[in-house]
Amino acid sequence: MSTDGTTGNARARYLAVEISKGGGAWDVAAEEVMLRVAQMTYELGASARAGAAELSILLADDEFVRTLNRKYRHQDKPTNVLSFPQTAVYQNAVDHNLANQNLANQGTDPAAPQFGSVLPLGDIVLAYETLVREAHEQHKTFENHLAHLVAHGVLHLMGYDHEESEEEAEEMEAMERAVLARFDIADPYAAEHELEDMPTGTDKTK
User: What 3 state SS string does 5-61 have?
Assistant: First the structure.
């Protein structure tokens, strides 16, 4: 892996990330984690037909995220990460690129131009205090927990989901593990799955 978190063939799937601050004690080290993990997530999770893309990350505090969560999800509490995808735009761009590639393979010059040079993925918002608290409760470093949530958020922007079906949830979790493994970060779901595998009647609180 190169120093920017990409592999040799990743340039065709370059991800531009715009980071802005709206609250919370975020530092430069955290921003570096986000850039590297977001790029790797896009590289591994994007369709083979996808080209360059862009997304924005807003670094916020609990109060700001609580306001967004109440407005858009009708839950009056902060949450660790919110994703606002432009899924339809992304999928249309991918499909358009595939159609043009098929025409090119047939030796036909596509009449329509390529769908821009950069695909818009959407926006991610992170809550600083919630991340700090969760990392402490889960006995993780802040950086590792942040990496997981960035991967989770970027996958949502690309259409991955964990609420519609168990199969989709497993696919998304597997992709998160693959991304984190590139940074030598342990499986974030391991402890949860160990509890699920315990015999019936076992006290899971110990």
Answer: CCCCCCHHHCEEEEEEECCCCCCHHHHHHHHHHHHHHHHHHCCCCCCCEEEEEEEEC
